[in-house]
Structures are given as structure tokens and as C-alpha cells.
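Worked example 3 (structure in, sequence out).
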């Protein structure tokens, strides 16, 4: 039996709009799912578990209504949970995922079999994000269904490994669903991720510049203006290394000296501090380099589809020339 997630073959494209702190909410998720790609959001984007449940109900209701009206099955949606001893909401949020049968749960930081078993109990899937092989091994032991390989240059808490080597290392030890994350902003990039052996592309930064994201106008403008060299990788803002737009660091008066400092984050006590930090200092990945506009998600998905098709067709022509001899 194949160990790959069954739902992938029913999608419009093998892509997930990745969960983003302060950026993704029900509007973005619903629009992604209606357009045939997986939409996700972090549970912590709602300040309380009650608020989180309201969003779950809204997403489920609107997607059910869409299916009734159009006869089309929407893509599954997902929720990101921070699995860390300092996240006081973890237990309550896992219970809500069980109550509402959230199709996909994306765990960050810790991969624990308690969460995996809870989500599996109703047939949900768990994907876990990792930046190195050791984390992949631990998550595989915990029984996750998929691994999200967060490579160098990714928005948010990006890793520092090249995607080629990260995917090669993980594929040696894991044969379930593999998602590649980091700088995937175009349909050609999605095709490239498939070439490299990924089952799905996991895209964050590109979705900041959609009409349905919660990002302020200035943030989106900064992304359009930025190139790969305008992204700064630092642990100074959130205690864990993450990628930020240089112009937003400058605007917040952060100096070179500040960038060398590190502090430990506590998801219970420091959520407010974290919100303040990420509200003024904007995260984005090196994939900003190909983002030149803000679009509605429906238009973005159509663009990604045609770019994907063009890239695969173009590449198949290589077989007329190579290999030789
Ligand atoms: C502004 C921003 C916020 C993010 N917040 C989260 C988060 O709350 N949880 C999480 O698992 N990943 C978060 N990420 C990481 C994304 O889920 C994803 O791994 C990453 O954006 C993919 O790389 P890309 O931005 O280069 O496409 C965030 C990324 C960005 C850009």
C-alpha cells in the first residue's frame, strides 16, 4: 500500500498554502480549498481556543456550502499547532481538532505520538515540519504521515540546509509524504520541487501577497520591492532563527548589534511580545524575488497551474536532446 497521502491526487496542484503567524485566517484558507489547494492557518492566530473553534466552524460551514452549491469537493484544510511545553493551549486545541475532525494537522517544534494518535483516532493526518535529519527521524518515530522539509531561505523559521541535500537525506529514512518548503513562489518552482522528489510544495511568502491574506499593504509592497539579498536570517527577534525583510528591521530601528542577540521564546508568557515583534518586523523568505504583485487566490492558483504545466512541458522536451550516447 502506498504511504503517500491519498488526497494529493484530487488537488488542482500538489500545493499547500503554509500556515503563517498573523497572516492566514479563514478567508485565505477557504479560498485556497475552493480553488483546489490545501489552505492552512496557525491555531495561535486566534487569541483563545474559543476563537480557534469559531474559525474551524466558519471554515467547515463555508466549505460544506461550497460543495453543496457547486458539486465540487474542496481541498482539505489544515491547522498548525505549536507542540512545545510552553504552549498552554495545546491540549485544548488538540481536543478541538478531534471534535471538528480537522483533516490535516501540521505540528511545529515537537513531534509527539500523543498528538499523532489523537489526530489518527478520527482519520486525520499529521504533517510535521523539520529543518534537519535528526528532527525527521524523531518525527518518523512518533508516527507522522508527512514531513515538511523547511530549507534555507524559507519564510518564518527557515532552516539553513540546501533543499537538494535536505530532501536526499530525509528520503533515505522516510517513505511517506514529503513536502518541500522554502522559496517556492511560482508554478515552475512547484514543478522543480516535484523533480527533486517532493510529493507536494509548501508555499508561504507567495500567499502573503494575496488579497485574502491579513498582511498590511506596506508589508506586501516591501515584498514586491525586495530581492533575495534583502532577507535577513536572525534569532534576535523570536529566539529561533527566522528570515525577515531587511527594510522592516531598519524601519523598526534594529541595529547590527541587536541582530547578534538571542533570547528564548516562551509561547505562554511571550505570545504578546511575539505578536508585537511580528506585527512590526515582517518575515518573508528569499522567494520574494519572483513576487511582483498582489492577486486574489483564484487568480494566483490559475497562474501557478499554467506556469507548472509550461515548466513540465518544456522540461519533457529535454528528452529529445538528452541523454546522449
Ligand atoms: C510571515 C510568516 C509567518 C509564519 N508563521 C508560521 C507559523 O506560525 N507556523 C508555522 O509552522 N510556520 C510559519 N511560517 C513558515 C511557513 O509555514 C512556511 O514554512 C514558509 O513560509 C515556507 O517558505 P516560503 O515562505 O519561502 O514559501 C511562517 C512564514 C512566514 C513568512
Amino acid at each position: 500500500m502506498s504511504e503517500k497521502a491519498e488526497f494529493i491526487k484530487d488537488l488542482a496542484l500538489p500545493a499547500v498554502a503554509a500556515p503563517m503567524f498573523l497572516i492566514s485566517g479563514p478567508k485565505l484558507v477557504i479560498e485556497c480549498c475552493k480553488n483546489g489547494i490545501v489552505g492552512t492557518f496557525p491555531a495561535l492566530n486566534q487569541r483563545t481556543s474559543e476563537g480557534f473553534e469559531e474559525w474551524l466552524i466558519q471554515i467547515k460551514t463555508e466549505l460544506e456550502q461550497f460543495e453543496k452549491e457547486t458539486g465540487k469537493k474542496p481541498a482539505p484544510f489544515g491547522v498548525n499547532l505549536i507542540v512545545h511545553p510552553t504552549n498552554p493551549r495545546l491540549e485544548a486545541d488538540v481536543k478541538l481538532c478531534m471534535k471538528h475532525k480537522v483533516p490535516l494537522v501540521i505540528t511545529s517544534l515537537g513531534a509527539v505520538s500523543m498528538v499523532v494518535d489523537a489526530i489518527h483516532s478520527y482519520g486525520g493526518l499529521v504533517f510535521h515540519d523539520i529543518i534537519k535529519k535528526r528532527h525527521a527521524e524523531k518525527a518518523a518515530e512518533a508516527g507522522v504521515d508527512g514531513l515538511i522539509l523547511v530549507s534555507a531561505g524559507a519564510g518564518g523559521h527557515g532552516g539553513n540546509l540546501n533543499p537538494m541535500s535536505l530532501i536526499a537525506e530525509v528520503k533515505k529514512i522516510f517513505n511517506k509524504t514529503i513536502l518541500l518548503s522554502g522559496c517556492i513562489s511560482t508554478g515552475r518552482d512547484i514543478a522543480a520541487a516535484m523533480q527533486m522528489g517532493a510529493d507536494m510544495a509548501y508555499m508561504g511568502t507567495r500567499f502573503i501577497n494575496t488579497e485574502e491574506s491579513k498582511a498590511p499593504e506596506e508589508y506586501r509592497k516591501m515584498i514586491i520591492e525586495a530581492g533575495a539579498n534583502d532577507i535577513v536570517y536572525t534569532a534576535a527577534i523570536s529566539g529561533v532563527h527566522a528570515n525577515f525583510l531587511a527594510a522592516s528591521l531598519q524601519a523598526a530601528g534594529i541595529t547590527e548589534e541587536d541582530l547578534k542577540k538571542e533570547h528564548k521564546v516562551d509561547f505562554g508568557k511571550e505570545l504578546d511580545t511575539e505578536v508585537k515583534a511580528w506585527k512590526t518586523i515582517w518575515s518573508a523568505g528569499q522567494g520574494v524575488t519572483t513576487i511582483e504583485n498582489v492577486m486574489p487566490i483564484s487568480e494566483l492558483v490559475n497562474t501557478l497551474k499554467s506556469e507548472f504545466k509550461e515548466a513540465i512541458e518544456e522540461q519533457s522536451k529535454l528528452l529529445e536532446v538528452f541523454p546522449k550516447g
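Notes: The pocket of flavin mononucleotide is lined by residues 18-21, 23, 42, 80, 108, 129, 150, 154-156, 181-184, 202-205, 283-285, 287 (CB under 6 Å). Residues 6-218+285-318 form a domain with the TIM Barrel fold (CATH 3.20.20.70).
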